[in-house]
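Dear colleague,

Thank you for sharing your sequence with our group. We've completed the structure prediction you requested, and as agreed, I am returning the results in plain text so they can be pasted directly into your records. Please verify that the sequence below matches your submission; if there's any discrepancy, let me know and we will rerun it promptly.
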Amino acid sequence: MDTTPKTGGRSRLPIVLLLAAFLLAVAGAAVLARQEHRLKFQLGLAGAALTSAKADLAATQAQIAQIQAKLDEATAEKGRLQLQLQQLARIFSQSRRQFGKSGRLPIYAGFYRVPPPSGTAAPAAFKLRVRTLLPGQLKISVKSSSSGQDKTSAFTIGRFWTDPDTFAPGDKIEISTEGYPPVRLQAPPAPPPSTASPAKQ
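Please find the predicted structure tokens below.
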């Protein structure tokens, strides 16, 4: 008589459960591996973004330092210019007082002839040249009288020659500014007409 116990269908049940558990564990491990890979990838992106942000921050800080250095330099230059302007204003004021005491307008003035256009019989004309003897600029008024008509113009002159206007021969001109007696000039007379040479026979 066979006394070996019969296994039947119930003996296979634990094996099936173990296999199912193993497959679930494998699937879970795969899911976890994918999640780990995705997280590492995101971490790499975040690290690269952080590195780029640090580089941008360093570049911005360098630009700020350069701008600050230029601003400091401009501020120092502004201070030097203001000091120079103050010194020039003091010299100008002293010069004005000195010339005021001497009773004459601190300018150089004169005329030079303007040649007529080539091939034309335009009348003679003279340009007035004037410059100040003072440092800085000086505002002057130029009044002219020509053919019974008066004309007054305002100009600002400096240490370099300025040509305020053109005048006809014999025009009377008065140059004035505040604090000084005026300077009166007269344009030179017209040059004599040229005499043509007689034609040879």
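Summary note from our side: The longest helix spans residues 13-102.

Kind regards,
the structure core
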